[in-house]
Amino acid sequence: MKLGLIGLNNTGKTTLFNALTRGSAAVGNYFSSSKPNIGKVPIPDKRLDELSAIFNPKKTTPAFIEFVDIAGIASGPVGGRRSGNSFLIDVREVDALVHVIDFFSDEAITYYKNNNSFSCVETINIELIISDLELIEKRIESIERKKRFKDGPEKTEMEILVKIKDTLDKGLPARNLDLSENENRVIKSFNLLTLKPVIYCINIAEKYLKNDICEPAFINGMREFAEKDGCLVIAVCAKIEEEISRLEPEYKEVFMKDMNIEESGLDKLIKASYKLLGFISFLTAGPDEVRAWTIKKNEKAPKAAGKIHSDIERGFIRAETVSFADFMESGGSFLKAKEKGLMRSEGKDYIVKDGDIIDFRFNV
């Protein structure tokens, strides 16, 4: 899973990146490098810890989440287009966007209170729309140069592109369209930014951690705004999150409790992204390796097997399956789970569930 961090300059985006990845990317008013900051982080999963304690495997492999932090986007128009647009190419390959919003600076807080406006969101949305428009317009021009584009697959593609362009021209993201599965397949290669789901990450001031000053107004207002677009909202204090990331585990829990933080920003982002993207994790366990695998909800067993290796999907026979809860209730024993009738032999139509421990049987 890959998430792209976007936002205006000075929103604390790179501070948050450092907190999430325990990195040391340069933080400032801007950075001029064309290269994004990239960090890969293991996804915490207590089920892996418990299984590792039972099997004592040679290695334990969690699922990973990758963060891509691009340069902050400036808000002023440049030559009919806004600045910062060129950096957006670095987040076209991500699964979802994390839009970091400043609600820690006095300037941002005062502006919202005086204007009751989400202009910070609108500014970034314009950038995303412009970037997608440029891509769509180039492709439309390319198809139009072909004399016989009115026939065949390019005709279908053109119809979809025009529909998306009309929506973008109205200042609306492409995800507002109810595109069919086939339409999404046709334009998948474009990786349109405005089709990607968004998590609005509000970077709050430290003083808000111990009270609810901003909760009724800004955060609740953002949630209402986001729900209309099928997006989610979380609130973190990037400055404190960076401090937490530097602490040893034994001190982290005490510090978080003292700061009135129930869960870390990383945990919040993982939960939000899994919910938004419809992801779950299944597990494999044995003396060689205990591992978590991320898949989409409602995926059938053969496709889940393909996550491990294409040969397993191709030669799929069955999936020996037990839920994590049932496995633990059976004393951490596959044999006892089988004796209790909790170990199941599932076929090709079985829909994998979160926390399933699976041993795939296959033949190639």
Write a brief structural summary:
This protein is α/β, with parallel strands linked by helices. It folds into two domains: 2-276, 3-Layer(aba) Sandwich (Rossmann fold), CATH 3.40.50.300; 298-362, Beta-grasp domain (Ubiquitin-like (UB roll), Roll), CATH 3.10.20.30. The chain has helices spanning 13-21, 46-55, 106-115, 119-144, 153-169, 181-186, 215-227, 238-245, 249-258, 265-277, 301-308, 310-314, 324-329, 334-339, and strands at residues 2-6, 37-42, 59-61, 64-69, 77-78, 81-82, 96-103, 198-204, 232-236, 279-284, 289-296, 316-323, 344-346, 356-362.
According to CATH, what is the class of the largest domain? Alpha Beta
Provide the spatial order of strands within the biggest beta sheet: 2-4-1-7-8-9
Count of domain modules: 2
The CATH superfamily name of the largest domain is P-loop containing nucleotide triphosphate hydrolases
